[in-house]
Amino acid sequence: STSVAAMSSQMRAVRSKMEEDEQLRVLMAGFRGSNLNEDDFASSGVRMELIETDSDSDHQLPLVYDVDAISAYWDRRPVSVITRIAQLLGISGRFITGLLVDAAAGKLRENEVARAIQLRDIVTSLGPAYIKLGQALSIRPDLLSPAAMNELQKLCDKVPSFDNKLAMQVVQDELGAPWYEIFAELTPEPIAAASLGQVYKGKLKTGETVAVKVQRPYVLETVTIDLYIIRKLGIFLRRFPQVTTDVVALLDEWAARFFEELDYVHEGRNAERFAEQMRQDLPQVVVPRTYFEYTSRRVLTTEWLEGEKLSQSKANDVGQLVNVGVICYLKQLLETGFFHADPHPGNLIRTPDGRLAILDFGLMTEVDDDIKYGMIEAISHLIHRDYDAIVKDFVTLDFIPEGTDLRPILPVLAKVFDQALEGGGAKNINFQELAADLAQITFDYPFRIPPYFALIIRAIGVLEGIALVGNPDFALVDEAYPYIAKRLLTDDSPRLRAALRYMVYGRDGVFDADRLIDLLGALEQFVESSQTAMGNLNSESSLNSASSLNSVDGDVGPSAQRASLQLQQQPHRTRAALRFIFSPEGALFRDFMLDELVKSIDALSREQALALLQVGLGLQGAQIPLLLPGSSRSFLSLAPTLTSEDRRVVDNVTKIMTFLTRGSLGTQSQVEQGPVRMVSEGAAVAGELLPVLPAVATEVVPQVVSRLASRVAARTVREVFV
Length: 722
What we know:
By secondary structure, the protein is of the alpha+beta class. It contains 30 helices and 13 strands. Among the domains are: 199 residues, Transferase(Phosphotransferase), domain 1 (Orthogonal Bundle), CATH 1.10.510; 106 residues, no CATH class.
């Protein structure tokens, strides 16, 4: 197996080596959001073409993605469809002609960068659907080359603002009154404009400063007619076997999420749900409040948050906020399953009080339990280099369809991971050969990048890009593993309990004390990082998060929690891992470790008994007669036998106790000051743990006694009768 520290070091080396390759460097820069255009408005001269049409009372456009309803609506309006096609051809005629020429000449791959630049330059004029589709493709390395992705990521989702009179008419139509009867003030001009709408800064009659987003007129009509046309084209392309990508399936999957972005009430509810999920564990994360009484499908009114983009901040706590961001996205991915699907630097803000604000919840995606648990299982398999299990994880995580023969894939993946994780590290990796191997796999087998995973790569990549500016040694493993350790040690779901067992016992079922210490050490890092990254939070926020950030607290009442918070703010003599073990939140871990505890007590007691008989009483070879009928021997050694397994258990206990007491009982210099200091420190530790010891003893001791008695009885029977 591989230690997490070694894996972190290897990944930093691999990243450095990868950046020496131009294609890989461009790909990584793209995932980090380095090429994104963060302007508030489009460049001058850009004009977005929309389709205007009158709807009738019998046939309305659907407000959720419905292929049949959209087709029925536009089938009745052939003139509008022809008009839109003419608009599209007028804007993109040169691009389409060039693409057809490339296809006929077999130069699609050779000229893809030039075509991507062309596409980027014209796509803003085509309207919201094409802008959003281009951005979605820009994070799909399975569909585009790194260079083409790089160009599309420069795509700007900013367009010229539309007329303010139209915007104010939308406000009146949606909210039922002129803007001045609802808001005390609004900026005369929008402060930013995007493909779907534009934003004004305002103030409510009650005094709160707000951001008011107003949807662009005719967006729904333009989006649906474009989807209608693209889908017709995708159905036509199915006639050609050379086109292996199912355009219709990709479009339907993307369009269903895109439609949700058109409903601002849905966006407000997304923000509310997200904030609630983060409130207890991550009070450092801020989500602007939605004022639903001033929100409708096409008008969104939210709290105005002051701050600066995290990617542009020079504050000394940016690294801590990146850590908060990593934990936030891991929590979405591995715990809540409700994932922010539009991660880019413009949506991550550092507030003046040192917290991380996350904006724009129009586009969210759901991650099911199979994916959530499968990610953690895959990490545990990778640490133990269990490549057979990793290949199966690719199926669980939807990289490979079920039913695929996995045997030919295993040797290549094993080679890839072994090169990356071996002691020689990155310098031993031949990236040209590696790329060829992976390309061959993707050609021979139906590998794909699931949409949720492209979003994960983008989110984590953006955070990594921000972190690397201030800390070139940043490694995602160092930030992610502490959170994963916390989940493994505290989650009671059967699959995570099994993943914890696998992490500690491995494929061979042998207890690994070093791996357990690794997990407990990572848990301590999580507690420390959570506390140091709190920012200038008020005491109430700190109080609300106390139980989750410091695992010694558990589920307690407000007064006890306040006392616990005061205790947390004082220096602890007991290290966090030991406090966790004795805490209410450590109950699952104590239950998990019960059998190992029984083995330890059994082995230690027999070791002490053996030492007493051999050294203290000189009865090393003494035997006692066995008078039991049916016994397999006449005499039984008085001294207990110690097997290699027993000695391994004793060694493990020594390692774990050394880890738990190191830092709890003082530094080496303090130890050298003599036993008085040691006793004093030990008494202080015992005093800290004393309040929880009776409850833990009541829970654990009866089970230990019962299991220990059963173990001793079973061994005695074996020794006497077998």
